[in-house]
Structures are given as structure tokens and as C-alpha cells.
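Q&A log
Question type: sequence-to-structure
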Amino acid sequence: MDRMIYVGMSGAKQAMEQQASVANNMANVSTPGFRAQINNFRAVPVVGVEAATRAMVVASTPGADMRSGPMTQTGRALDVAVRGDGWLTLQLPDGSEAYTRVGNLQVGADGQLTTMDSRPVAGEAGPLAVPPGSALVVTSEGVVSAIGAGDPAVGAAEVGRLKLVNPLAADLVRGDDGLFRMRAGVAPAQADSTVRLLTGTLEGSNVNPVEVMVDMIANARRFEMHMKTLQTAESNDQQANKLLSNS
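Response status: OK
Response body:
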């Protein structure tokens, strides 16, 4: 009897958590560079005085779908997308690095190259500072050059090179802010000169809306199934108590 309770209870809990993950994917179906979150599950034995046959369901190796999203040409000079494998590097306030596929860049009020949500973009030699009144050009190798605004006599001056990296997917961990970081104990990723960019292009979310809708329906039905298991266990327990009281 209690085995039914363990299976139903843990299964319903994990179904709810997976539904939250699927709902987050659905909410980000239009977010540039978003990577769909995935969760797997496995059975583990219950540790304690219970019999060794008791098991529960827990989340296992949660991660992200690393497939590339669709590419959309925007024609904007500061829109870049990583072609194939690779990541853009961001500089966080605590000095650490984070990695993203979101390439809609802008120049902040302080002249620093940032993402649209004001996160500084890291260069191979540190932050990228843009000269005032200049237009930017980004090459496929990640080289950022500044051109004097309105003055044809002023040539292009190299600002720096974006730090493009390509670490192993197993070494990356998604944060609550949607950015990826190296897992604990792994050094920051080194610049990879083979990573290339598509300029005037943005990468979309790799979430498939149809698949997400199917997953939401499946999770809802799975949760109902586990709840019915608990109800059946309760009904069986009540019937067993009645038989014992009448005997």
C-alpha cells in the first residue's frame, strides 16, 4: 500500500515541477537566443527504516536543449548571431563571466558595449569601450571597429574583439537569470578563434511551440494519473480498515 503512496506522491510532485519548466519554455518562445529547459527523471530508493522496495521519483540531470534557434536577418549593425556552436561572453558585476546566445547589442550611456538588458559584453582584452560619436561595425570574427560619425576622413579604429567561446556543453550550467556559467570547479572558458558570427542577424528561441503545448497536456494528464493513484491508495486503506474492524 505505501509503495503506491511513494510513487504517486513523488510522481505528482515532479510532474508539477516539470510543468513549471515547460511553462517557462512557453513564456520564452519569442525570446532571442533562449535555450529550452529540459528535465529527466529517475527512480531512487527511499533512505530510512522503510523496506528496500520503496522508491521515489527525482529530477535527474536537468539541462538545456543546445540546438540552435532560427536565424532572422534584421539588417541592424549591432545585431549578431553565433553561427553554429559557440557563445558570447558577458562580464558580470562580481567580475565573473556568463555566456549567452543573445546578440542584440547596444552602446550604453557610458560608452560601453552591452546587451539590450545592459549587461557588459566582454572582449578578449577586457570590456569594450566605444569612442563617443562613432558608428560600430562587427565582423564575422568578432572584431569591433569604430568609424567616425559623419567624417569620411576618419578611418575605422579597432575597439577590440568580442570574446567568443565554445566550451563543452557538459560544463555549462543555466542560471536563474537565463545565462549560462561554467559549473563549479571549472575554469572560465578560453576564447576560441574558430567561432564565427552572422552580422545583422538575431538567433531566435529554439523552443518549438507545438511540442511545448503537447508537453503541457501530457504533464497535466500525468499529474492527474498520480493523484488518482493516491486516491486509490486511500480508498484501499479505508476498505482494509473496515475489514479489520468487522473481523
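Response note: The radius of gyration is 25 Å.
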